[in-house]
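Worked example 2:
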Amino acid sequence: MSVETAGPTRAQQATPLPLPGEDHQPLGLRAGAFIVYPSVETGIELTDNVFQSSQNERDDRGYFVAPALRIESDWVRHSLRVNAGSRHLYYFGNPSEDELEVDVRVDGRIDIKRTTRLEVEAAYNLDQEGRGRVDVPGAAAEPPNEHRLNGEARIVHQAGRFEVQVGGNAEYNLYEDVDLVGGGSQNNSDRNFTEVGGTLRVGYDVSPRIQPFVAGGYSAQIYDQRIDDNGLRRDSDGYEVEAGVRVELSPALSGELAIGYVRREFDDPALSAVDGVTVDGLLEWRPSEITTVALNVSTDIDETGAGTSSGALERIVGISINHALRENLLLAASAQYSFEDFTGSSLTEETVFLTAGLTYQLNRSVAIRAGYSYEEFDSSTAGSDYVENRILVSLLLQQ
C-alpha cells in the first residue's frame, strides 16, 4: 500500500546512479513483439572497512561483474516488462566477504476494457544482511543470505471520477543459516515466514491533476516454525490505513504523499504489538530538462527474531538528484536516513547513507562510471557501530 523505499544492500553501496541521456540510451534488440536490452558492467571496488567493524577496520579491494537484461513488450494493448540482474563482488584479500545480489522482476498489465485493467507483479531478490544488524551474530563467518519471493495482483477500475483498486499479495522470506567462526552454525529456519494480504484503495479525481485517496490493508504472517528458537509464537496479523493525495501539478512536479497508521499484533502474549503513525510518499521535481530531484519517505514494520523483541518500526527519508553536466556526462547524488525502534527492547538502529556518481557515455553502447558511497551505522548494541567508505570505477557495455 505504501511506497516501497528499501534501504541499500551491501552490493548496491557504491553503484553510481546516473542514467544516460536520450541520445545516448541503448536502442535494444528487436525480438518479435519485444525489445531486449542486455548489458554488463564490470570494474574495481575499494572499501576501507570490509568487515563493517567498529574497530580494527580492514580495507580491501575486489572486482565485480554485474550482468543485466531488460525486456519490454511493444504491443498496442497490454504490456509486459522483465528486469533481471545480478551483481557479483569478489574481494582479493577476504573472500568470506564476497557479495552476491540477484534481482528479478516481472510487471504486466492486461487492459480488460477502457476503464478497467489488471496489473500483476512478481519478483525475486537475494542479498546479504549486514554484519552489524541485530539478527546477525557477532561470530558469523560471513554475512548470511536472505531470499525474498513475492507476487501481487490488483484490479484498477475507473468509475466516473472514482478510481478503485483492489489487490492481493503473497510473499515468502527465507533466511539461510549462519556459519560461525570456529565451526558450527546458527539455525535461521525459525525466521522463515509467509505473508499474505489484501488492499483496497479508493481515489476521487478532484481535477485531472489532483486525486485524494484513502486506502486500507490487512496481512497475515505465518512462520514455517510455529514456535521459534526463543520459545515464542511469532505469527501475526497486521492492519494499515492511510489517507493521501496524488498530484501532477505540472510536468515539473508530480507524486503522492500519504499519512496513516499501522499495527501488527502477535499470537504470543509475550510479544507486544508494533504500531505507529506512517508517512509514505514519493515526489519528483524537474526544475529543468536536465535535472531531476526526488524525495521519498516510507514507514514499515521490520521483522526480527532477536530475543523477545516483536519487531521494529522503521522510518526512511531520502533525496536524490540527477543532473546532466553535458549531454554525455551525468552526475547523480543521494542521501538517505533510516531509523529503527525495536518494540519490546531498548534497541535502536540508525543508518546514514550517501552516494555520488558520474557516468561518461562514450556512445550508446559504452560508458565509463565512477562512484562513491558513505555508510554510517549506529546501534544501541555495544560494538555494532561502523563507518564504511567505498569507491568504484567501472566499464558499462550495453546494447
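The longest strand covers residues 311-326. The chain has one domain: 10-398.
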